[in-house]
Design goal:
single chain; 389 residues; alpha/beta; Rossmann fold; 7-stranded parallel sheet; 13 strands
Length: 389
């Protein structure tokens, strides 16, 4: 928690500005980069309110970065001209209703779970492989348990939709613009709310000078990006286990997100299905080290049925990996709509994993991604998309 004297200094400094963008964020890894990007476009005109009661784990404190309780107590008189919700949840909705019930435009940047888990799943969108051992164990969680929980989630979805309908002025997608189409398909009553484009992963910033010119130089296989159960690890590992992967390491990142029970279930399934090839990552890695690891991955497999791991997918494609996505995943349609060379997980063959992506296909993917997801284009999107200030 920020000390009181720092909060006072922050108030005095921020009040010098005529209008500010208020960002409602989680304590997540990508927020520091997000702060830098918005500050590059609108210097000293951003206030980031971090929704955590604990000491910040990932987000660095600063003059314009404070815990939300500090804002509630001290800063409701700032001249905020727009609000940006980075991942929508009940606390942020309550916050907006309390401090900005009308007039000030509100942007909702979709992260994934706030769309698929909270709004689409209660309406029938499937995200989980029900044949997995974790699902059959009954530990999958509230979304798939007793009827009362399903009813409760439908009620919560209705409340979220009511908030969106009443207070959201712009629906902003992160990278995969067809998330907006998915929302409209399930909730056509929201089609009066316009869409705006955005992305959190400028490739030149994420990779940096060291790795921006690098290509894949290994033959490892990667499955998933986190310990979230919507990665459907067992689903992907079952498909891969039918192929010859002798001598290849199957890297399975499990150090981020997810529950301990799911991690144990994935570990048990991995050892059973992939044996000595299974290589779980359970210790958190700094971004630079993780990106270096990705240069050793020639085949990247994502068992997700919803939009997820988009940053990993972008970097894997850019470095030259063969990326396999489930036919159920809207990200596969997004990638093909952008003419990227990607593959369907359910149709994977021995030849697919044995033969690396051709140099022409690697360069083709790299050209598309660098044109779409570079720092300068993101600066333009921030300037053009968040103009109601």
């Amino acid at each position: 928690m920020m000390p009181k004297y720092k909060i006072k200094q922050t108030i005095q400094s921020l009040n010098k500005h005529i209008g500010m963008i208020l960002h409602l964020v989680h304590d997540e890894k990508i927020i520091n980069r997000t702060i830098d990007l918005f500050e590059s476009v609108f210097p000293k005109d951003n206030l980031f309110v971090v929704f955590t009661r604990k000491k910040f784990k990932f987000v660095r404190e600063g003059e314009n970065v404070i815990p939300y309780l500090a804002f509630e107590q001290k800063m409701n008189d700032l001249n905020i001209t727009s609000v940006v919700i980075h991942y929508m949840n009940s606390r942020k909705m309550k916050f907006v209703r309390k401090f900005y019930p009308k007039d000030i435009p509100v942007y909702w940047i979709i992260w994934g779970a706030d769309l698929y888990n909270k709004l689409l799943e209660p309406k029938g969108f499937e995200m989980i492989d029900k044949n997995s051992g974790y699902y059959r164990s009954g530990r999958i969680g509230k979304f798939f348990s007793i009827p009362y929980d399903k009813i409760r989630e439908k009620i919560r979805a209705a409340r979220n939709i009511k908030f969106i309908n009443e207070r959201i002025n712009y629906i902003v997608t992160d990278t995969t613009e067809n998330d907006y189409d998915m929302l409209m398909e399930y909730y056509p009553q929201l089609n009066h709310i316009p869409w705006r484009d955005f992305f959190y992963y400028p490739i030149d910033v994420v990779l940096g000078d060291e790795l921006i010119s690098k290509y894949i130089d290994g033959n490892n296989i990667q499955i998933g990006n986190s310990a979230s159960h919507t990665n459907n690890h067992e689903y992907a590992m079952t498909i891969l286990s039918g192929l010859d992967i002798a001598g290849r390491k199957v890297v399975v990142p499990l150090s981020y997100s997810g529950k301990e029970g799911y991690i144990k279930s994935v570990t048990a399934s991995g050892k059973k299905l992939l044996r000595d090839n299974f290589y779980p990552l359970t210790d958190f890695m700094p971004l630079a080290d993780y990106n270096r690891l990705l240069t050793s991955v020639s085949v990247a497999i994502y068992g997700n049925w919803r939009q997820e791991a988009i940053g990993n997918i972008l970097i894997s494609l850019y470095l030259g990996a063969k990326v396999f996505l489930s036919y159920r995943n809207p990200v596969l349609r997004w990638a093909r709509n952008h003419n990227l060379v990607v593959f369907e997980l359910e149709s994977i063959t021995q030849k697919d994993i044995d033969e690396p992506l051709s140099a022409d296909d690697i360069q083709h993917n790299r050209n598309i991604l660098m044109e779409l997801y570079n720092k300068n284009r993101l600066y333009t999107l921030i300037k053009d998309s968040f103009v109601d200030r």
